[in-house]
């Protein structure tokens, strides 16, 4: 069954969990271990729904998707080498390593010269990561990250506009609420898989409701 792990794969996944936990356990930027844990849970759910996805590739890519991110490591090339070496030690085959690395490199090096994701496993893991950026969890992460950067929750004079440019958010005027418009509200339409899109609908609706309540409370209307 391609959708479930065999015994050997379970051992490798367990070792990989320890490896990732050691690297992310002290993170305070929203890429902490529990983010990985939730992305793995989302991934398992989506991989079962998307019946042709290889569970081992999906789970490994979910576990490793942040350990080469430039927000977390100084040298990405070095980090990729370290991940390769770890996987080799764990007897992950060359083909499997290639599949896993192509997913996590694509997800970490935002856009760039990367080839687009093209496998169902890549689509599943990217959707799983995006789901963790919306809904109740996404709201908590956004406000937490904003505080981490020393930014305010909301500035009423900073009105969200359609198609705000990246520069609008980089001139020091970013707020937690603006990030909803910059990113969170867009994710629903970027989902790759049908199962991911369905879950995103519910979480998106929650974001919209949250903003309504937020503005109403801001103006003492509720
Ligand atoms: P990931 O690497 O998990 O795809 P990011 O690194 O872009 O996501 O962001 C990690 C978390 O921090 C997300 O939940 C995201 O919403 C939040 N975040 C990123 N940028 C901002 C920002 N400018 N303002 C508020 N929250 C942000
Ligand atoms: Ni992530």
What does this structure look like?
It comes from Fundicoccus ignavus. This is HD domain-containing protein. Pfam families: HD. Residues 28-143 form the HD/PDEase domain. The structure is a single chain. This protein starts with 6 loop residues before the first helix and ends with a helix. By secondary structure, the protein is mainly α. The protein has two domains: 7-111, HD-domain/PDEase-like (Cyclin A, domain 1); 135-218, Methane Monooxygenase Hydroxylase, Chain G, domain 1 (Up-down Bundle). The protein has helices at 7-24, 33-49, 55-64, 76-89, 94-108, 120-131, 135-148, 166-170, 176-182, 194-218. α1 packs parallel to α3 (55-64), α2 (33-49) packs across α6 (120-131) and α6 runs parallel beside α10 (194-218). Bound molecules: adenosine-5'-diphosphate and nickel (II) ion.
Level-2 CATH architecture of the largest domain: Orthogonal Bundle
SSE string, helix = H, strand = E?
HHHHHHHHHH
Structural class: mainly alpha
Rounded Rg:
18 Å
Number of strands: 0
What is the terminal separation in angstroms?
52 Å
CATH class of the largest domain: Mainly Alpha
CATH superfamily of the largest domain: HD-domain/PDEase-like
Q: What shape does the CA trace take?
A: globular
Fraction of residues in H or I helices: 55-70%
Characterize the main sheet: none
Question: Spans with pLDDT under 50 lasting ≥5 residues?
Answer: none
Q: Report the portion of residues in β strands.
A: under 5%
Mean pLDDT: 91
- Give the names of the bound compounds: adenosine-5'-diphosphate, nickel (II) ion
